Amino acid sequence: MMRALAAALLVWSGAAAAAPTRVVSLNLCTDELVLLLAAPGQLASISFLGADSNETALAPRARGLPTNNGRLDSVVALAPDLVFTGGGSDRYARELAIRLKLHVVDVPPPQNIADIRRNIASVANALGRDAAGTALIAQFDTALGPTPAATRSALLLGGGGTTAGADGVGAQLLRHAGLMQQDVPAGQVSLEQLLAEPPQVIVQTKYRSSQASLGQSWLQHPALRSLPPTTRTITVDGRPWTCMGPLVAPEIARLRARLQ
């Protein structure tokens, strides 16, 4: 009797520890993490953004994967055994998944560099891929590199003058390229402020530049040609900066190399 019970417990514990095989991601930022960490055949669906090359450099890895619209009702029929949501914007999907007794792992947007590592480890653990998570964190840290002693003033500049907070994760990442983000209230700089207090370096994020928008036209404003010659503008791929996850570290390495 005891032997049979022990055998049953062993089978149960093995099943409980089994890696999920029908994994769903409802958010671009969790899409990127699962595309980097999941084993072949482990993913059942990612959001449509994760398969869009305009949104992420990992879109080729998503080729052939079913996509969803970011809502839980679009994936329930897949009977997922693990659902990844991405913080506040996915709150309703997360609450519904919990009510349906689905296994949900929420991955909030990182507020600092340590959060990026924690998110990688959390997703890897949920996938049963701890070793892959450890390897990805090591790659991230290697690409990110140490913080240079010398710094230059900078603005991480997106469409419409959007920018990063002076103490946020974007600013922390820039420090690893030897750049100190200027303090801009409300995360948006005006043309007047930019011309009055120009930084030494403008890091301009290029995102869907082929599509006309007010945000993109702001970056082409003639007034920006009046910046002093001491201000250097460097254009970078804006896609990794959307989620500020592991993909941003190689961008920092490239930026650091261009500044040397």
Automatic annotation (TrEMBL):
Q: Secretion signal: which residues?
A: 1-18
According to the lineage, what is the superkingdom? Bacteria
Q: What keywords is this UniProt entry annotated with?
A: Signal
Where is the Fe/B12 periplasmic-binding domain positioned along the sequence? 23-227
Q: Is Signal found in the keyword set? A: yes
- Tell me one Pfam family matched here: Peripla_BP_2
* CDD domains (alphabetical): TroA-like
Q: What PANTHER family does this protein map onto?
A: MOLYBDATE-BINDING PROTEIN MOLA, VITAMIN B12-BINDING PROTEIN
Q: Write the protein's name.
A: ABC transporter substrate-binding protein
